Amino acid sequence: MSLRSLLHKSQPEQQFLLFQSSSSQSALPILRSLLAVKSQTSTLLFCLLYPPSDLVEGASGDVQVHDYLDHIPGYSADTPDIQTSIAAAVEKAPAGALSIVIDSVDTLASDIGSDAETFTFLRELVSIVASRPGPSRLILHTVTPQPILIQSSFSSSLTHITVYPPVILTHLASEYLTPPPPLSPEPKFWGVFLPFSERASETDRLVYGPEGQGSGSQEEIIVQILDGKIYSAKKAEQSIPDPTQNVSFNLNLTPQQQQSRAQVPLPYAHESSKPDPIQGAAIFYDPDSADDIDDDDPDEDLDI
Questions:
Q1: Higher confidence at residue 199 or residue 295?
Q2: For the chain, which residues make up each domain, given as ranges?
Q3: Are 54 and 14 in contact (CB under 8 A)?
Q4: Are 244 and 252 in contact, with CB atoms under 8 Å apart?
Q5: Residue 282 CB contacts under 8 Å (≥ 6 apart), including other chains
Q6: CA atoms of 220 and 90, how far apart (whole Å)
Q7: Distances (CA, A) of 300 to 134, 291, 304
Q8: Which of 9, 50, 234, 291 has the largest count of CB atoms under 10 Å?
Q9: 11-165+216-236 is a CATH 3.10.450.50 domain
Q10: Residue 133 DSSP label
Q11: If you ran DSSP here, which 8-state letter would residue 212 be given?
């Protein structure tokens, strides 16, 4: 799937989109472009982290904005529960295709106060979107990685969009001599890019270090798009193979073989009917033919 198809095509299978930003690069420009696309879908935008002006320009008839930036749980008795507020707005949404956009998962989890409750609530929203006619979508924005959301058990219609600053490409080209394809073979490039991009401290150093620009670019962004099928394939590749498979001999024992093996006397085991002198502990010594065994006291000539 390309970024252009993500922004300009309404595909029914895109039911769950997860945008992941980082401290060095924001995904808001892409999310902003996605919300700017005209469609017949009713869109509910819930702002918990960034102001609505960072996501939509002015009043839009296609997007219904709910500003929760001043929502502080426990500040007063009149502060509504964030789950109840979002659920009520979703219930009042008109019939037909519906897109629910939440910025961000991090703030939502902080307001709810429980990762388990947040996960359950988002699962309910996924079910609501799946029950609507296409193209209905749940669009989430997060700043920190959300491993539980990218698992197939959460949603099989996942599209995970992760953004990186473009300075990574110039760094890999100059330091690792690995420019992006087609200048480098794809296996070689991804073998270098993926491990490096997962080290957030290295990326932050490139952006905020002495030679960095101080912030991620708003015009050029590296976008990595993965869907649920790719995650399922990666999970299968990461499964540990059975070392006993595809060998020319059998490494497994039958119950009869295990019983016979247990009855074989061990050469280093000493059997004795006498009780051990010190509560079962004893030292057994088998002299060698070259040992000089002398029963006489070597110190008998000493006058002590």
A1: 199
A2: 11-165+216-236
A3: no
A4: yes
A5: 276
A6: 34
A7: 103, 21, 9
A8: 50
A9: no
A10: P
A11: S
Task: Dig out the tokens for 178 from the structure.
Answer: 């690995």
Cα separation, 261 vs 259, in Å, equals 5
Q: Which residue has the tokens 């912030």?
A: 215
Identify any residues that bridge with 170 across adjacent strands, giving them in sequence order. Answer: none
Cα 247 to Cα 3, 244, 255: the distances in Å are: 46, 6, 21
Q: Report pLDDT for 288.
A: 74
User: How do residues 49-104 score in pLDDT, each as one tens digit?
Assistant: 999 999 987 555 578 999 998 887 777 667 778 999 999 999 999 888 899 999 99
Q: Which two tokens stand for residue 125?
A: 């929203």
The tens digit of pLDDT for each residue in 112-151 reads 988 889 999 999 999 999 898 878 899 999 998 888 888 7
Contact between residue 141 and residue 21 where contact means Cβ atoms under 8 Å apart: yes
Q: Amino acid identity, residue 242?
A: D
Mean pLDDT of 161-174: 91
Tell me the per-residue pLDDT of 214-240, one tens digit each, with 9 for 90 and over: 666 667 888 888 876 555 444 444 445
Better-predicted residue by pLDDT, 253 or 182:
182
Average pLDDT, the chain: 79
Q: Is 275 exposed, middle or buried (0-12, 13-18, 19+ CB in 10 A)?
A: exposed
- Please answer whether residues 11 and 147 qualify as being in contact, where contact means their C-beta atoms are separated by less than 8 angstroms: no
| Percentage with pLDDT > 90 across the chain | 31
d(CA 48, CA 260): 68
Taking the C-alpha atoms of residue 17 and residue 7, their distance in angstroms, rounded to an integer, is 12
Q: Are strands 42-47 and 98-103 parallel, antiparallel or unpaired?
A: parallel
Tokens representing 199? 């080290």
Report the alpha-carbon distance of residue 217 to residue 264 in Å, rounded. 72
Q: How far apart are the first and last CA of the chain?
A: 95
**Burial (CB count within 10 angstroms: exposed 0-12, middle 13-18, buried 19+), residue 161:** buried
